[in-house]
Amino acid sequence: MKKLFAMLLALAMVFALCACGSTASAPAAAPAEEAAPAEEAAEEAAPARTSFIMGIDPEYPPFSYLGDDGNYTGFDVEVCQAVCDSLGWELKIFGVNWDEKLVQLDSMECDCVWSGMTILDSMKEAGYVISEPYYDNTQVLVVKADSGFESSADLAGKIVAVQLGTSGEALLGGDLAELAGTFGQVLTCDSFLKCFTELEGNAADAVFVDMPVAASYVASHEGLSIIDENLGAEQYGIAFRSSDAELCAQVDAAVQALVADGTYAKIAAKEEYADIVNNLLFLSK
Amino acid sequence: MSLLTMILKMSEGLGKTCAIFFLTLLFSLPLGMIVALLRMSKVKVVSAVTRFFITVLRGTPLMLQLLAVTYGPYYLFGANVARNKLIPVVIAFSINYAAYFAEIYRGGIESIPIGQYEAAEVLGYTKLQTFMRIILPQVIKRIMPSVTNEVVTLVKDTSMAFTVSYQEMFTIGKQIANSQTSFMPFLVAGVFYYLFNAIVDYLMGRIEKRLNYYK
Questions:
Q1: I need a labelling partner for A128 at 20 to 30 A (CA). Which of A154, A237, A239, A276 fits?
Q2: What is the reported pLDDT for A279?
Q3: What pLDDT sits at residue A195?
């Protein structure tokens, strides 16, 4: 009964959101859906779509962030741009609210969520279509270099900061709940910058964060170090609406084409992506 | 997670929400009066400086003020960030609400006709006596509806404490919403805020009625 009510409520919200966004996005989405049954040629379905709205977390370097020139950039953005170029789509970028990303995807505000997004079983269960995983991520603990903490066991009874809505937070509440239980407190902040400010301002003893974020922050800020202990492996993928399996396959194929012709490796070789290049699954294969 | 666990988990944070609410009222109501009196000071410099501070506090978002009070000392002086977030949260809320209350008090005080001051002077009241015994009781009656307005807003504004990672009810709701990929916690939060405000509304109505002793 409760579940039914929750589902009805969610449905009502989705409809309400659809109604708001319908004028802008419905005409773009409808032809693609009609074309779906005629499934032979992806090439033929492609002309129906002229633009592609990429949903990103605008504060997730180096995958997606606001560049020095004021335009969104990052590894995911560059790959998506290359995909759109090859398929003849116009790329539009939409900054999602990370906590509500899947709701915004459902409400047609964007066509995919592609921004260093961890693939969760709950997403698949909810029916979202997920691309091939392209990145293998690990979580690490960042501490002050002079703190003397050398492993997660040293943090028993200490305060550990984690960003709300990240895979780190999910891990501490799920697979790593036992470890989280030994911490004195898990402090959830709404941005990773705040997590690090809590650490540097001595209000937290460690930050639990994605490896690439940790590496880039520690490189640019003195006095911090990463505990050499990989916690919880996870993979990144692109999320599409449940009705967009076709679109997902199209994007997957386009990415593979970029891998094959070397464009993908060229993007990954850029200096600003040095921290993540080793974890890219398509390049290690 | 069942609805009941959700509600129980979120009501754990309700105590912290109440702490922000009551402590803010405790500090901002008297502080507002001091600010209002400074604002009406005959010394031009004092009133101009007070006025400037009021425009800053009313003209910038409370969320920024929360960030400034919590993390500002660290970025400016390298001071430690407070471990107990209730302290910076209550400081930021109290200062912000004092600015609003000050303007409400000022409106109330200035609405009393000058003739009453003159009459009191003729009857031999000192300035302090005039203010405490004649002006203030009337002011309190007049400003009650505006104060209720602010108090109701304060209940809802407590949700902003999440921005500095203070684990009040709404922060916990967001965490549950995230881990359960469910909208239910937001609905629960809405009901909590509504009930809280229904109580506030009832109590303020009672006080207003009590104050209507001449009608």
A1: A276
A2: 79
A3: 93
Q: Do A197 and B71 touch (CB under 8 A)?
A: yes
Residue-wise DSSP of B73-106: HHHHH-PPPPSSTHHHHHHHHHHHHHHHHHHHHH
Q: Which domain holds residue B35?
A: 7-211
What interface predicted TM-score (ipTM) does this complex get? 0.77
Domain residues for A153?
138-233
Picking from A13, A188, A189, the nearest residue to B183 by CB comes out as A13
Q: Does some domain include residue A11?
A: no
Q: Contacts of residue B7 in chain A, CB cutoff 8 Å? A: none
Cross-chain Cβ contact B178/A99 below 8 Å: yes
A227-265, pLDDT tens digit by residue?
A: 988 787 778 999 999 999 999 999 999 999 999 999 999
Q: Which residues of A touch B177 (CB under 8 A)?
A: 99
pTM of the model: 0.68
